[in-house]
Design a protein that fits this description.
12 helices; 10 strands; TIM Barrel; about 15% strand; eight-stranded parallel barrel; globular; single chain
């Protein structure tokens, strides 16, 4: 397992992070996504620790709160040996203020997460999604107060546009507050839109990129067939997230499969290895419903793609050019 620096924090985190979205949840979307019991969740945490994973990601909404609870119990006495990231912003109850990034909700959400995790501090606390109703300075001040109270060590942002990440960090710098050190984003061979604005922003500001859904909900494993129809028991069968160009996916998977067969690895490991080779990517979140899936994902850490292999994958997955991207590429050196 390799380790990378997280933003400007000085923390070294494993390049693979165990995600817990599949932990717990007995009804609705969470049952479809995971529904793992505490014993299975604990076994996965133990296996991740065995191979050197020191980074764990969860959220207050995952499994209706079960994910944080299961993770905290699974870590037990190992809590201080690892970096735990959790998030706030999505609904956690029926009340009008049981969501968002207001001071009221962030304070309540942080306290609830601390109780479920069984800890007195959160290493990395994410704004899970943007809140169009709460001014950015209000959110950043509330997060700063959580840091000053010792309940949160560092801050992260997830699913925000680049301009708003920049706005938040500029506000933090102006006020002398803690800034976002990590951006957790949707990024994979089938979805590289992040490279247009967010990746350059993060590179310029020394903000780490942490990837969620690196296999595009399982599509990049190659197991869904050329029509992109997942098996009935697969997560994506009941939870379709975002648009997907299956014709483009087929081309990507064809190349990944050729590389996988030549190297004696799986298509999923090739897709993960491509992400791990991206210089802006600090850590990739892997999650699983079964231990065999977890073992396969963890195996990606041992796969180093050649320059030729990376170039083939990059070329076949190249996103369409949009303005001003094509203009900058054409005229920056004019």
């Amino acid at each position: 397992m390799r380790y990378n620096l997280l933003g400007r924090t000085g923390l070294r985190v494993s390049e693979l992070c165990l995600g817990t979205m599949t932990f717990g949840g007995s009804e609705g979307i969470w049952k479809a996504i995971g529904g793992l019991d505490p014993k299975t969740a604990a076994d996965m945490v133990a296996r991740a620790l065995d191979v050197g994973v020191n980074f764990f990601d969860t959220a207050d909404g995952y499994g209706g709160g079960d994910a944080e609870l299961f993770l905290g119990k699974a870590l037990g006495a190992r809590r201080n040996d690892v970096i735990v990231a959790t998030k706030a912003g999505f609904p956690t109850g029926p009340g009008q203020n049981d969501r968002g990034l207001s001071r009221v909700h962030l304070f309540a959400a942080a306290e609830a997460s601390l109780r479920r995790l069984g800890t007195d501090y959160i290493d990395l606390y994410f704004a899970h999604k943007r809140d169009p109703l709460t001014p950015v300075d209000e959110t950043m001040r509330a997060l700063e107060d959580l840091v000053r109270a010792g309940k949160v060590r560092h801050l992260g942002v997830s699913n925000w546009p680049a301009w708003q990440m920049m706005q938040a960090n500029a506000e933090a710098r102006l006020r002398g507050w803690s800034r976002f050190e990590c951006a957790q984003m949707y990024y994979n061979l089938a979805a590289r839109e992040l490279e247009r604005e967010s990746v350059p922003c993060c590179e310029d500001q020394h903000v780490s990129v942490m990837v969620w859904s690196p296999l595009a909900g399982g599509v990049l494993t190659g197991k869904y067939g050329r029509q992109g129809q997942p098996p009935a028991q697969a997560r994506r069968a009941s939870f379709e997230l975002g648009p997907m160009d299956y014709a483009a996916v087929n081309r990507i998977v064809d190349v990944a499969r050729e590389i996988a067969q030549a190297r004696g690895v799986t298509v999923a490991q090739v897709a993960l290895a491509w992400l791990l080779a991206q210089k802006t990517v600090t850590s990739v979140i892997v999650g699983a419903k079964r231990m065999t899936q977890l073992e396969d994902n963890l195996g990606a850490a041992a796969l180093i793609l050649s320059d030729v292999e990376r170039a083939r994958l990059t070329a076949v997955s190249e996103p369409s050019s949009e303005y001003p991207g094509w203009y900058l590429k054409q005229f920056d050196d004019f």
